[in-house]
Specification:
The protein has two helices and five strands, in the order αβαββββ. It is elongated and about 70 Å long. 34% of the residues lie in helices and 20% in strands.
Length: 127
């Protein structure tokens, strides 16, 4: 009878006991391995999420009534990042609304923005 080849844990190199297709000796090693594997990706995603949340907070603060007009300079002062948004809505006339979750803005003339709030549920079309 051939001797069974012992495999080592991908994280710590320790002995694996159990199923033949196991890759880790424990849940702790599995979680640690996957955290290391996804660290760069997770850091990037966390950074983008933080920017989106900050953008949403700024829009919410500047738009307490659900519809407001604000200058780009005011948004810049607060640290708004126009690069990041969660969705867009294009009207039949071609106007492009950008949204950070339910908080949105529409570029108008001379660096002014119309701030709006999506009223519909996430499954419905915005505006």
């Amino acid at each position: 009878m051939a001797k069974k080849e012992e495999k080592g844990c991908l994280e710590c190199g320790g002995k694996i006991i159990g199923r033949a297709d196991k890759k880790f000796c424990s849940d702790q090693c599995r979680v640690s391995y996957n955290n290391k594997l996804n660290r760069d990706e997770t850091a990037y995603m966390n950074n983008v999420t933080n920017i989106l949340r900050k953008n949403r907070r700024i829009l919410l603060e500047l738009n307490p009534t659900g519809k407001a007009k604000v200058n780009r300079e005011k948004l810049n002062e607060k640290g708004f990042d126009f690069t990041y948004f969660t969705s867009q809505y294009v009207t039949k006339e071609g106007a492009v609304y950008h949204f950070c979750y339910e908080q949105g803005y529409l570029a108008m003339d001379k660096n002014w923005y119309l701030l709006v709030v999506k009223k519909e549920s996430p499954k419905q079309q915005p505006l």
